[in-house]
Every structure is written in structure tokens, then in C-alpha cells.
Amino acid sequence: MVSHTLQAYLFVAGGGAVGAMARFSLTVFLQRGSVILPWGTFVSNLLGCFVIGIVAQLVAQSPWFNNAGWIEDQYRLLFAVGFCGSFTTLSSLVLEMNTMLQNDEAGSAFIYFAGTMIGAFACFYMGVMLVRALGQLPAG
């Protein structure tokens, strides 16, 4: 496991920078067509949960993680902590829900919150199941 060295911080920072730019780009792209719901935040949260589900399952499958070196701890720091940490955004979700509530859009705020929470867990689980399914494929 990578300790709290400069290298570990650099992996987190690199992943975080790419994740933040990807989230901003996705938000700019998706908000062109709709102002009803904050689609950029919604989609980035779901995609980030899918990716972190994949990473979590890869780490959990110890033969790949420990023996084959397929995904080492620095890549967990890069993808899960750095990229997904900045690509997903709870603070933006809360801010956007607050704006909806201030605009008397309680129904939209509830749908946004429930859709994000249910969708995020579903996407995480799909990422886990994808890695499990790929792990069952015959080698070679």
C-alpha cells in the first residue's frame, strides 16, 4: 500500500485535476439543452459511482490486486480518490437542490435527490458486477 508520500499526493492531485476538468466539461456540454435539472452534476455523480464501483471491485479481487499487480494502490489513489473524488460532487448537488427549493421547485429537488441516490448506488453496483462478470471470463 502506498504510504502518505509525495508520490501518493501527486497521484491524488493528478486524478483530481482530470476529474474536475471532466466534470466541468460534462456540465458545460449537458447544460446547453436543459435548465430544468442540473444534468451535468447528475450524470457526473452517476458515472463517478460506476467508475468507483469498478475500482472497488478490482481492489477487492485480491488475486488481481495483490498477485498480478493489475491495479496497484497508486492507481486506486489516482482513479478512486483523485478522479472520482473530484468528478463526483455532493456539494454541487446540495447547492442545486437549495436553488430548486428557493425557486419553489420542491418536487424537482426531491426527484433530483432521489434519482441521484438511487442511480448512484445502482451505477456503483453495475460497476462491481461488470468486474465480477469479466473476472468469470476464460483467460486467453
Layout: helices, strands, pairs:
Elements: H1 6-30, H2 39-60, H3 62-67, H4 73-87, H5 90-102, H6 106-135
Helix pairs in contact: 1-2, 1-4, 2-4, 2-6, 5-6
Short summary:
The chain has 140 residues and is mostly helical. The protein has six helices and no strands.
3D architecture notes:
By secondary structure, the chain is mainly alpha-helical. It has one domain (6-132). It has 6 helices and no strands. The mean pLDDT is 86.
Shape: globular
What's the number of extended β-strand segments? 0
State the assembly state of the protein chains.
single chain
Tell me the structural class.
Answer: mainly alpha
Biggest sheet details = none
| Number of domain units | 1
Q: Strand share of the residues?
A: under 5%
* Helix and strand pattern: HHHHHH
Number of distinct helices:
6
Question: What is the helical fraction, as a range of percent?
Answer: over 70%
Low-confidence stretches: none
The Rg value, from CA coordinates, equals 17 Å
Descriptors:
140 residues; mainly alpha; 6 helices; 0% strand; globular
